[in-house]
Amino acid sequence: MKLANALRRSWSWLRARRQHRRTRAVLGVSWHPFGSAVRHLSTVGDVSPGGAFVHTGLPRPPGSPIVLDLELPDGRVRTDVHARVAWCSGDGMGLRFTRAIDG
After folding, report:
1. Integer angstrom CA distances of residue 22 from 13, 61, 67, 68, 77
2. Residues 74, 100: contact at Cβ < 8 Å?
3. What count of other Cβ atoms lies within 10 Å of the Cβ of residue 1?
């Protein structure tokens, strides 16, 4: 019971820190560490105007700059989306966009 309460408190703290509402999405994404030519293909699990979660078995360390090419639901590709790794998990990495995304 104590563990469940602690987890609830930690998640509510995280939700309170978010500035934007997240939307669940399955979008294709090609990404690479800033300055690297090696690209990785992954999927996005959720996205908001402030960031996204990228499913990958190769998460970069927190603070790492990342460049993304996002495949949008309408078929358009948004290129050169700059982000920074905010946190990592066993499933991937949470990214914070460092440049505004429009459309």
Report:
1. 15, 22, 20, 18, 20
2. no
3. 5
Q: Is the pLDDT of residue 82 over 90?
A: yes
Structure-token pair, residue 75: 């078929």
The structural domains of the chain, ordered by start, are 21-97 (2.40.10.220)
Name the residue with tokens 């930690």: 10
CA distances from 75 to 13, 28, 39 (A): 35, 10, 20
Q: What is the pTM of this model?
A: 0.71
Give the Cα separation of 17 and 30 in Å (integer): 27
Q: Which two tokens stand for residue 57?
A: 């078995």
Please write the tens of the pLDDT for every residue from 14-50. 444 555 555 566 788 999 999 999 999 999 988 888 8
Question: What's 89's DSSP letter?
Answer: -
